[in-house]
Specification:
Blueprint (H helix, E strand, L loop, with lengths): L2 H27 L4 H31 L8 H27 L3 H30 L10
Length: 142
């Protein structure tokens, strides 16, 4: 699979599963109709999809320049922290608007989602690498 196709497939699968999990959860937690919370989840996922593609490109470029290109647990955690940390700041105003809550409440809600998505991002990326194989940036040079 080419690096471009791999990133696109990874990002789309990641976000489709995220919408299915987060949409109903947001509706339940904030007493919003499921259709509205799924719409918000789709908007959040669209933003996350763009960030996912950009971040993974940057991360893989960094990773390819490292002496060891093996994806260790530490590197996977670094990846998850970088991705989710950037996403928090991108999603705050959208969550505040979509849920009709303050930025502070959106920040707190986002922290809860951050914990969930941190674990999800690490597990998803690991599973994706098992199914599709690691990217070229994470294989040792010969």
């Amino acid at each position: 699979m080419t690096p471009l196709r791999r990133r696109v497939v990874q990002a789309i699968l990641y976000e489709l599963i995220a919408i299915a999990l987060v949409g109903p959860l947001l509706g339940l937690l904030f007493d919003k109709p499921v259709a509205a919370s799924l719409g918000l989840a789709a908007l959040l996922s669209t933003i996350a999809l763009v960030w996912n593609y950009l971040f993974n490109g940057l991360f893989e470029a960094w990773e390819a320049r490292q002496a060891s290109r093996v994806r260790t647990l530490g590197r996977r955690i670094l990846h998850g922290l970088g991705f989710e940390g950037g996403l928090v700041f991108l999603l705050l105003p959208v969550m505040a608007w979509g849920l009709d809550i303050s930025m502070w409440a959106a920040f707190l809600a986002n922290l809860g989602l951050l914990v969930f998505f941190f674990v999800y991002a690490v597990a998803f990326t690991w599973a994706f690498d098992i199914v599709f194989g690691p990217p070229a940036s994470a294989t040792e040079r010969r």
